[in-house]
Amino acid sequence: MEEIHLFIIWENALYKKQEILEDIEKNFEILKKYIITWDLDKFSENLSRFYGTNLPKGSGKEQHCGTGPFMLIIVKDKNPKYEKRGTSKGDKIVNTNMFDKKTYYREITGGGHKIHATNDVSETNHDLTLLIDKSIQDFLKENIVSNEEEKINKNLIGAKGWKNASEMFYVLNNCTNYALLRNYENLPEEIYVNDHNDIDLICRSKEDCAYILNAKKVFNEEYRVHYVTEVEGKNAYFDLRYVGDNYYDEDLEEEILKTRVWNNKGFFTVNNYLYFYTLLYHALLHKNQFAEDYKIKLVNMHIENINENTKEQEYINLLNKWLLDKEYIIKIPQDKSVLFNTKKANMMSRLIYRNEEELLNLKDKNIELQEENNLLKNKNKELELELNKMVNSISWKSTKWIRDFHTSIKRKKN
Predict the structure, then answer these.
(1) Phi, psi (degrees; rounded to nearest 5) at 202
(2) Which one of 67, 308, 312, 330 is least enclosed by Cβ atoms within 10 Å?
């Protein structure tokens, strides 16, 4: 099956441009070539967002690659082959046609990372969307294939804020796996939704998501996940939850991303079934009081047999049963700014939640058992040493014939 990929020849490798292009033409179909220039004052920010890592102005990467115009080559691989290769992020399954050519082009340009190439289609979609504002699908749909080099002066999309929420979500959709958790009914028309004026989403990596959104941290504390980006000249706020942050059980977080659904307004959300239970969890365990607007929303979702007269204890029992059935554990969020309702958590089964005192007791008990186990191991080692000493002693060896004779007499009698 054919695949779309791309190469980048950064400024400091352009002296080998012709040689590289000739080799690319022998192995791939070139669809489009761009010479792209980024604003110098935005270069380090663009580079950081593109690679998803902090590369401040004057970084080694920037000096190595150069800050001038660079070449983007979009290609079609008619016979992709996938195998395991060692990458900067560990062993990965990659398109070896692209990976091996990237390695070769890096060698002929003096080593290092002056050549970039995509390892799989999802990376192509990420890179293409950020660089030329088009996903693979839209690039092909617009049929802009040409042998001519097109010169463009533009930063990564969103570099100076987002035109509107639709543009922002278009990029998010094509660059990362995420799902909006709640309060998205009025998006993308309104960035602020009722009284909960931020956008709650879950993703694989909050750092990657923040770079894609061109969002900055609002607070300095490491554990805080509150970010802000500019949309239509105004601030839009996000809480970037991520897999493994204990906001929910990690298995539940994985399930949310695995079963996310497309909303016709232009973004991905948690599916309706999980929306009900994650909202119930949030309303009971992440809030001091079970707010009326949450109750109304839960009733209107028609997932469970509840109504306006359903008591709070019934909601607690409902969540407790669901968590037990799914074997999800109640966790205390790593984000300390998230309220955790210990009182309601203590009303849940001990199979899905243990309070700090119980956890400390379990920890102490575990330490005691480990200490007992270590004592037994040491005792066994002592006994083994004593036994070895005895077996290897002169007296033991010299009396071996007596023990053997005694054993043979016993056998004869039996």
Answers:
(1) -120, 140
(2) 308
pLDDT digits (tens, 9 = 90+) for 14-64: 999 999 999 999 999 999 999 999 999 999 999 999 999 999 999 999 999
Instruction: Please indicate, yes or no, if residue 73 is contained in any of the structural domains.
Output: yes
Give pTM, 2 decimals: 0.84
Is-contact 217 140, C-beta < 8 A? no
Assess contact for 345 and 285: CB atoms under 8 A: yes
Q: How far apart are CA 261 and CA 266, in angstroms?
A: 11
**Same domain (yes/no): 142, 172:** no
Phi, psi of 315 (to 5 degrees): -65, -40
Tokens of 36: 């792209």
Domain hosting 303: range is 165-345
| Residues 185, 187: Cα–Cα separation, whole Å | 6
The verdict on 292 and 225 lying in the same domain is yes
* Secondary structure (H, E, C), 340-407: CCHHHHCCCCCCCCCCHHHHHHHHHHHHHHHHHHHHHHHHHHHHHHHHHHHHCCHHHHHCHHHHHHHH
The strand pairing partners of 92, in sequence order, are 85
pLDDT for the residue 193: 44
Q: Looking at the structure, do residues 279 and 412 belong to the same domain, yes or no?
A: no
